[in-house]
Specification:
The complex is a heterodimer of chains A (105) and B (167).
Chain A lengths: L1 E5 L2 E5 L13 H10 L7 H17 L5 H7 L4 H7 L4 H8 L10
Antiparallel strand pairs in A: 1-2
Helix pairs in contact in A: 1-5
Chain B lengths: L6 E6 L4 H16 L3 E6 L41 H4 L4 H15 L5 H10 L3 E5 H6 L11 E5 L1 H7 L4 E4 L1
Parallel strand pairs in B: 1-2, 1-5, 2-3, 3-4
Helix pairs in contact in B: 1-4
Classes of the chains: A mainly alpha (105), B alpha/beta (167).
Chain lengths: 105, 167
């Protein structure tokens, strides 16, 4: 298991760069991780999705899929692709310190 | 600036319910991985994007060697649905309902909703000109996500550098 430093703290990550221990995550890390994913500024709309994913991920033990986010968080598919372009569910999971979302829908 | 985004293009040539899903599932997965998606609907595949036909895609048990009685929850192993029963009125509707129920149980959206998700995610849909002419259809016959009616040559131009998957 690899480790890396995000926002001044050392955390566990897997070989795809997803954090493996969600409890190590902080909001400061989200800002840095978002920049790495090409999102220069996290707006309240971004935070709404990140917070939903944190909550859903903690409850279910896995990162929500895109369809789970759009149906349960009330954010449309279009909006998700605008907020987190090129692979929204994967990007938000990475930014929120969750694992890679699994599932075909 | 050179665009190095990976591209995938699907050619959908079948209008059966079970042949509509592979492109939808793979297209959705591609969009979820930041891959550019183009879909070209030709021949019976046009049914997937036709307003009139899209909600009524079916699967026929006749000559479908993979459809076994065990799908209905009976422990009959490899015993198939006999073709002689498959020709009875209502059997196609029955098989279709069975598949739709199984999909719904997995929270897989119906074809129309799934396709709209792909459109919202940026997938570009096109109808094949020759097939459209053959079936006597017009642009208005298709769901909103269909951008244009194009020739096979146009499709080849717009998918330069893409991986093409024929279904």
């Amino acid at each position: 298991m690899a480790t890396r430093t995000i926002a001044g703290k050392t955390v566990q990550v897997n070989d795809e760069g997803f954090m493996t221990n969600p409890s190590e995550w902080t909001k400061e890390m989200a800002v840095d991780l978002a920049k790495e994913e090409g999102i220069s500024e996290l707006t309240p709309a971004h935070w709404k999705v990140i917070e939903f994913c944190r909550q859903d991920g903690t409850t279910s033990g896995k990162a929500p899929t895109l369809r789970r986010i759009t149906t349960a968080a009330g954010v449309s598919t279009k909006e998700m692709f605008a907020l987190f372009p090129k692979g929204p569910a994967k990007k938000v999971a990475k930014i929120a310190g969750l694992g890679k979302p699994e599932g075909c829908v | 600036m050179a665009d190095d985004t990976r591209k995938v293009a699907f050619i959908c040539s079948k209008g059966d319910l079970d042949m509509a899903y592979p492109a939808l599932v793979m297209g959705w997965a591609a969009l979820g991985n930041g891959i550019d998606v183009t879909m070209f609907f030709t021949f019976w595949g046009l049914d997937i994007v036709r307003k009139l036909r899209q909600p009524h895609l079916e699967i026929a048990p006749v000559a479908n060697t993979s459809m076994k009685m065990s799908m209905m929850g009976v422990n009959t192993g490899n015993l198939g649905i006999p073709n002689i029963f498959g020709v009875l009125p209502g059997m196609t509707a029955f098989a279709t309902k069975l598949m739709k129920d199984k999909m719904a149980a997995l929270d897989v959206p119906p074809v129309g909703e799934y396709l709209q998700m792909l459109v919202d995610g940026g997938a570009k849909l096109y109808a094949c000109k020759m097939s459209v002419d053959m079936f006597g259809l017009k642009k208005e016959d298709f769901v909103d996500g269909v951008l244009d009616i194009v020739t096979a040559g146009d499709f080849m131009d717009m998918t330069e550098g893409a991986q093409i998957i024929f279904i």
